[in-house]
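Prompt: I keep going back and forth on a fold encoding question. Comparing notes only helps if you start from a blank page. Show me how you would write down a chain together with its backbone fold. Please set it down just below, with no commentary around it:
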Amino acid sequence: MTDATVNMTASDHRKGLILTAIGGTLFTFDVPLARLAMTDQWTLIFVRGIFLALAIVIFWLAFRRINGARLPFINGWAGIIVAITNTLANIMFLSAVTKTTAANLVFILALNPIFCAILAWIFLSERVHRWTWVAVVTSVFGVCIIVWGGLSTGTYVGDLLAVGVALCTAIALTVIRKTGKNVVTSLAVGSLVSAGIALFWGAQPSGLAPEGWGWLALNGLLVIPLASGLIALGPRYLPAPEVAMFFLLDVVLTPVWVWLIFDEIPTTQALIGGAIVFTTLFVHGVWRYLSSKQVSEEELFVSGVR
């Protein structure tokens, strides 16, 4: 391998780390910004859904214009499934924001890669390493501690909704992996449908304070679209396991922001369960990263690059 190749690889890796770190950090502001809107769950679902759909449609139109692509807005059956799961995830996520603590929510959402591994094993016939099964069992145990604590604090409904969000997200990711189709615009459909359902069930956008509109506009038009875009660029420069590890920033930073802004302190059960989930996923992520790096180095050696 030449010095130029090494330098280019190191430069790309640093670029990937910076982009993914910024994207992962921006995601941690999702829950605090939703809380700052100070409104009911249906109004929250409606307004945020409209803003997210608008941002995605603008991006889709700009992409078609710049690249001349003629991608369908709903890309086959995969697009339909992603639209449905995104609709359910939107409703459950924003309902959970109002029914459980931020710590409980992000700790449980961290189950997403665990659900992905299980679904890939069932539907894609992908081999699951024994250490991944250990991580599955350990993480589920940690979440059970969180939900059990929610029975005494009254947050168990929100905790269960968070489990549903993680499962819906894992289903969508499994479908995308199975088909390989670009279904980003299905997220706009899911946002619009969830907004329509929220309006039917009693959303009152006219009662939302100007500050609430501002926080949700910042979230839906800028923070989440920008975070998603930066995270999507990550795999171009970094191994997928390394990109996935940046999602753990949400587990660490979101409870900190909510504590600083709202003085919301996690319960003992949430801290214990969250520590189990975070430690398990972090160790598992490091192991996957080192494994993928070793495989890549072996492939380079065999191919004669070195």
